[in-house]
Predict the 3D structure of the following.
Amino acid sequence: MDRTAFLSRVEAYRNAGWRLALINATTVMAAEGEEEGAFELAWGFARDGRPGEGADEAAGTLELIRETVKLGEEVPSVSGFFGAAFLYENELRELFGIDVTGIEVDLKGQLYKTATRIPFSHRAVRERLEREARS
Amino acid sequence: MKRTVIPFGPQHPVLPEPLVLDLILEDERVVDAVPTIGYIHRGLEMMVEKVEYTEMGFVVERICGICSFMHGMGYCAAIESIMDVEVPERARWLRLIWAEISRIQSHLLWLGLAADAFGFENLFMQVWRMREEVLDIFEQTTGGRIIHSVNRIGGVKRDISDSELAAILARLETLGRDFGTATRVFAKDPSIAHRLGGVGVLTEEEARAVDAVGPMARASGVVMDTRLSGAHLYDRLDFEPVIETAGDCLARVLVRLREVEQSIDLIRQAIDRMPKGEGLPLDNRPRGNPQGEVFTRLEQPRGEVLYYVKANGTKFLERFRARTPTFANIPAMIKLVKGCDLADVPNIILTIDPCISCTER
């Protein structure tokens, strides 16, 4: 991902008064012939208000920034722009194993207690699917 | 100054569910709080790997016993959006009515817990007595008091006859008058004002900075309510979000008090405006498997919930995600407890109305 372009888009949302509604990740398994999978990431920004009321044309909408990152690729934190981002970013680290750098409140792996370490990592998902197929 | 770490939860008299926070104190003042999620984490999102999308609704509505109906509604709306299903109008109105009944019962539950937390057991008892009546309505119309299973992809499973709707409205209006007595106590009692007024203040600027949602944000003067977007037929109802500006624990109580009255009014409007008659279509069940992705939003009692569904044309979804309002309000909660006295922590935490089941999805 283009780190500078990404952060400037996030900053633009912040400056325009959008709210961070979520950061979401999806594990994408490697296709046949490919060596490793990836993660689809989405940053959702909401604009509150009633559509068509007032001058805000974006009122009531949700917009997304999407990026696909490879395993091990660094993802910059947006917690400097949005105060709530640290929670989602710690989640990305602990549930998906995504390397988010520069999180303002780094919970150092203490956010989630899970039976499986990094439950949405490619390895964990593959093992579950294989186990399911065997049964 | 020497720092002390006090574990708050998972078991605590004020918590209905096991929240875990490590409070870091200097003397009696909280200087930091570290949340931990996972004490009862169930991995429900992971179940899409082995539960078919048609059955997944039953799992989703078990994310939480308080918001059960609305979780089912949000999941079905997401699948319907991907599969381009048009839900019959009466079914959409019925969903809205059940959603507002859910809001009433959730707020009554919370108001009772709040009363108990600040030591007003009689008020707790009265509010929960009223909530039982709302659960009776759920039982009468869906067959379940907590888990309703009345949503299905494409519509709803059961109708409520026009005469039943009239009776429900009459019952809710009686409840509303009864609730007025409790409202006066919450809003006017000097001991409650003393305990909650000026405690745990989140200013509008701070609420925006931590992206708070729901009554938590509205009590700080932020005009935000996902229902304003007009989805799920809310564009056909007349309402304005309930806003308070003090941003303290008392303001969060007042917002929920007024939202109970507002929900009764929305149900009245919905019954007036929905198509009448027996035997109207209630569902439009799709064929095949979904392919595509969608983000959908609802305004749950605790605030905005967001669902992400990604489907790949098979009977198993590729990804299901629920971003619940309590999860979104954790940064606000941490912001509030930093700097407060240890004795105020229970009330402050309770006033975000934490739903740990939702967070521990």
